Amino acid sequence: MQFLIKYRTVIALVLCTSLLTGCWDREEINDVAFVIGIAVDKEGENYRSSLQIALPGQSGSAGSEGGGGGTSGDKSWFLLSNTARTLRGTTLEGQKSLSRKIYYAHRRTILIGEELAREGVASMLDLLTRFPLNRLSAMPVVTRGEAYKVIDTDAPIEKFPSEMVRELCFLNMRNPRSLKTFIDSILSEGIDPFLPIASVSDSVPKDWKDSMTNIKLDGLAIFKKDKLVGMMDKAPADALILAMGEANAPEVMIKAPRGKGDLFIKLNENNASLHPRIENGKVTVTIELYAKGVVVDNESYYGDRQEEEILKINEAIHQKIKEDIEEGVHLVQNKFKADILGIGRSIHQHLPKEWKKIKDRWDVLYPEVKVTVDPHVIVENVGIVNKPIGVVEEDILHD
Predict the structure, then answer these.
(1) What is the pTM of this model?
(2) What is the pLDDT of residue 257?
(3) Within a domain: 206
(4) 64-71: long-range contacts (C-beta < 8 A, 24 or more apart)?
(5) What is the DSSP string of 75-131?
(6) Residue 366 needs a FRET pair 20 to 30 A away by CA distance; which of 6, 45, 114, 300 works?
(7) Per-residue pLDDT reduced to its tens digit, 354-383
(8) d(CA 88, CA 124)
């Protein structure tokens, strides 16, 4: 009887193994080309895609030669660029000249050329969202001029230029725009999309020895639906990011309350909220900003150690933040006519019945919305030094 039980058990285990699939669909790493980032441009009627592909053999040190198919050289990546009538067609063209299968699941940045962005990115986004290997967490960024020039910079501080773009996005905002949030803004009511702008810069002046090309973020690309309508410079762009509560430890420069010179205040904590109201058919909104600040630099003769002086610094930073945000809001309302702050969305959330009445006319009403900025900033710390360095006590200005 025991023999019969053991026999049946063995037969059952053998039958179970027939249900296991094993590794029939495995792909060896040496057969895969990992795309780290992509730059997409428009050239006439064609798309140009430039794929930044990692070279596994160069991951250790520059100039080494090793695994991953024996790649060698002075870079840990190479660029594969092709043109075709459609974006998907550029991948098919590129695969013809690549011995490894193009693999997009590791792509984390998408650089969009300025010309393509102005024409519209809807067709491109369809491919990037429909194909399951594409990450919705990838970060789209608009470039000044052609995108392939940005992805092909030296960017020596990171292994891949596309990764440098990603790290810059995280330094600039707490929650950088992902492909998912960008598409959500395109499809949602009461908000217009925006993306950071990347451009090529020089690490040192060009006539210096060992000058290298680098990447910088210098503003916001403003969209209406899927089309770029304008580019905002960095100063007003930073003010609007602060108004969204998304600024990542920003520094604000203020004029000294007395005398000449400037002070720099770092806002270690900052949060913002929108409070809309509709009275007699007119829409008003208050942007409330709460922050805690630290004096990180005092390049003036103004003292900052007494209570009255700290209060004066508080007043100065309140006024500076209010002016900067109001300037940025005026720009997006009147020049770009784009609601990137999501004022319409805030009305939808707080006053849904009123939103139903005005949503069809929002594009007309939005430029006339009165926006008030109400900052609440507390300077908690003036640093280790309690008076300007190098200034004798007799020359320090006190209140």
Answers:
(1) 0.87
(2) 87
(3) yes
(4) 67/30, 68/29, 68/30, 69/30, 69/100
(5) -SEEEEEEEESSHHHHHHHHHHT-SSEEE-TT--EEEE-HHHHHH--HHHHHHHHHS
(6) 114
(7) 999 999 999 999 999 999 999 999 988 776
(8) 9
Could you give the percent of the chain with pLDDT greater than 70?
Answer: 85
Range of the domain at 317: 233-399
- Assess whether 156 and 218 both reside in one domain: yes
Can you say how many angstroms the Cα of residue 112 is from the centroid of all Cα atoms in its chain? 13
| 13 falls within a domain | no
Task: Say if residues 173 and 167 touch (Cβ distance below 8 Å).
Answer: no
Structural contact between residues 335 and 240, judged by C-beta atoms closer than 8 angstroms:
no
Which is it for strands 227-232 and 109-112: parallel, antiparallel or unpaired?
A: unpaired
* 158 within 8 A of 197, measured Cβ to Cβ: no
DSSP annotation of 173? B
d(CA 26, CA 21): 11
What gap in Å lies between CA 20 and CA 17, rounded to an integer? 5
Residues 222 and 352 in one domain: no
Judge contact between 251 and 267, C-beta under 8 A. yes
Instruction: Give all strands (DSSP E) within 238-362, no chain letters.
Output: 251-255, 261-279, 282-300
Which positions ≥6 away from 274 have C-beta within 8 Å? Answer: 285, 286, 287, 341, 342, 343, 346
H/E stretch holding 208 reads: none
Instruction: Give burial (CB, 10 Å; 0-12/13-18/19+) of 292.
Output: middle
DSSP state of 105: T
Higher pLDDT, 176 or 56: 176
Number of domains in the chain: 2
> What single DSSP character describes residue 2?
H
pLDDT beyond 70 at 174: yes
* DSSP 8-class letter at 260: S
CB 324 within 8 A of CB 257: no
Question: Do residues 222 and 231 lie in contact, with contact meaning Cβ atoms separated by under 8 Å?
Answer: yes
> What SS3 state is found at 25?
coil
Q: CB under 8 Å to 330, separation ≥6 — which residues?
A: none
Q: Is residue 21 part of a domain?
A: no
Return d(Cα 162, Cα 108) in angstroms, integer. 8
Q: With 0-12 CB in 10 A as exposed, 13-18 as middle and 19+ as buried, what is 130? A: exposed
pLDDT in tens, 61-117: 444 443 333 344 578 999 999 999 999 999 999 999 999 999 999 999 999 999 999
